[in-house]
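Input (structure):
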């Protein structure tokens, strides 16, 4: 829909780094799905998305995007993360499943055509106590030791538990909080966690209460983002094909509220924070 991608005068117009992109089986399905690399990359290109954190169920999707000639031609930088899911069953058992730990090691050893994996996730913890599952604990230690970022869809209680399992007790673990609390942790709680863990970053897809009238930031979120401009990221979360269908609208939504921030802050959240984190030029 052409009208959706035409930026309003006040919208942010610079580059976007999509830090929460899934390229799951049903999206491409061995190049017969509705969004083969050409289609996925066309959506990134027309929205000014110049780099992505790519992860997928199973990891073949990320491997495919990382290796595609179309990716290089589109000028999109792929920052690959190892996903912990071979299939949907793994969502609810990965944290205690030794075969997941072995799969992560094999995938890390293999790397991708776009370079080594830079993180693990996105993973989910539907019950925060499972942050203390044996494989969850080992993966957090591995992530800190190998300086891998961690993209976690968890509640605020699990943030503390995951950080406590890191050798540094959270001071050296680069944890990206997917949705910055999709369950709606109060802004005061988000602020307290950002203060407590200096490397904690917040990814803002699906965050309840983030935007208010006209798609602009709600006041308390605007205040938090202005207080911590170096700690927030944006992402599409293409977890189902419908999100690929609405990719234009998702990115336009970000551009609308980013445009309401001071330009340097908008640029930090849209691009610089992730580019600095992963060394993307
Ligand atoms: Zn996701």
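Output (sequence):
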């Amino acid at each position: 829909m052409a009208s959706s991608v035409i930026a309003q005068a006040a919208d942010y117009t610079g580059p976007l780094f999509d830090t929460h992109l899934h390229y799951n089986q049903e999206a491409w399905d061995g190049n017969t799905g509705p969004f083969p690399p050409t289609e996925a990359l066309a959506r990134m290109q027309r929205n000014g998305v110049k780099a992505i954190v790519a992860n997928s169920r199973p990891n073949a999707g990320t491997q495919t995007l990382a290796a595609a000639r179309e990716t290089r031609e589109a000028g999109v930088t792929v920052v690959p993360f190892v996903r912990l899911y071979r299939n949907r069953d793994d969502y609810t058992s990965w944290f205690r499943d030794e075969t997941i730990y072995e799969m992560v090691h094999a995938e890390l050893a293999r790397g991708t055509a776009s370079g080594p994996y830079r993180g693990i996730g996105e993973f989910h913890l539907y019950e925060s106590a499972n942050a203390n599952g044996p494989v969850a604990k080992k993966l957090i230690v591995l992530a800190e030791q190998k300086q891998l970022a961690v993209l976690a869809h968890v509640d605020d209680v699990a943030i503390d538990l995951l950080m406590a399992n890191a050798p540094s007790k959270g001071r050296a673990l680069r944890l990206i909080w997917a949705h910055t609390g999709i369950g709606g942790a109060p802004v005061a709680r988000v602020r307290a966690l950002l203060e407590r863990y200096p490397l904690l970053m917040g990814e803002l897809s699906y965050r309840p209460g983030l935007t208010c009238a006209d798609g602009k930031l709600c006041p308390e979120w605007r205040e938090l983002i202005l207080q911590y401009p170096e700690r927030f990221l944006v992402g599409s979360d293409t977890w189902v094909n419908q999100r690929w269908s609405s990719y234009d609208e998702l990115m336009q939504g970000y551009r609308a509220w980013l445009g309401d921030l001071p330009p340097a802050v908008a640029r930090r959240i849209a691009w610089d924070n992730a580019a600095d984190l992963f060394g993307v030029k």
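Notes: The pocket of zinc ion is lined by residues 20, 22, 122, 178, 237, 239 (CB under 6 Å). DSSP finds twelve helices and eight strands in the chain.
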